[in-house]
Specification:
By secondary structure, the chain is mostly helical. The chain is 36% helix and 0% strand. The longest helix is centred in the C-terminal third of the chain and has 14 residues, at 51-64.
C-alpha cells in the first residue's frame, strides 16, 4: 500500500481502504506466536486445512487483551463509508 494505490482508489471513488493488522493462519506445522491484540486491530481469516485452530487463535487473543471481537462492516456503515 502506497500513495499511488491510495490515489488510484480515491480516483475510483473508494472511500476507505481496509488492510489487516494480523493474520493468525497457521501456514506451517508450527504456528507463529500469537501477537497481543489492541482495540482497532483487524484480523484476516483464511480458508486453510486447519480452520478451527486458525480461527480459534483470534478470539483467544481478544479475550486475553480484554477485547470483544466485532464485525468490520457495521463499523464501516456507521462511519458512512459503505451503504
Amino acid at each position: 500500500m502506497d500513495d499511488e494505490v491510495r490515489a488510484a482508489a480515491k480516483a475510483c471513488g473508494v472511500k476507505a481502504l481496509v488492510t489487516w493488522t494480523y493474520d493468525f493462519t497457521t501456514w506451517t506445522d508450527v504456528p507463529a506466536p500469537t501477537p497481543p491484540l489492541e482495540a482497532g486491530d483487524i484480523v484476516l481469516p483464511h480458508f486453510t486445512p486447519t480452520p478451527a485452530a486458525d480461527l480459534g487463535r483470534a478470539p483467544d487473543a481478544a479475550r486475553a487483551a480484554g477485547l470483544k471481537p466485532a464485525a468490520l462492516m457495521p463499523a464501516l456503515r456507521s462511519a458512512g463509508l459503505v451503504p
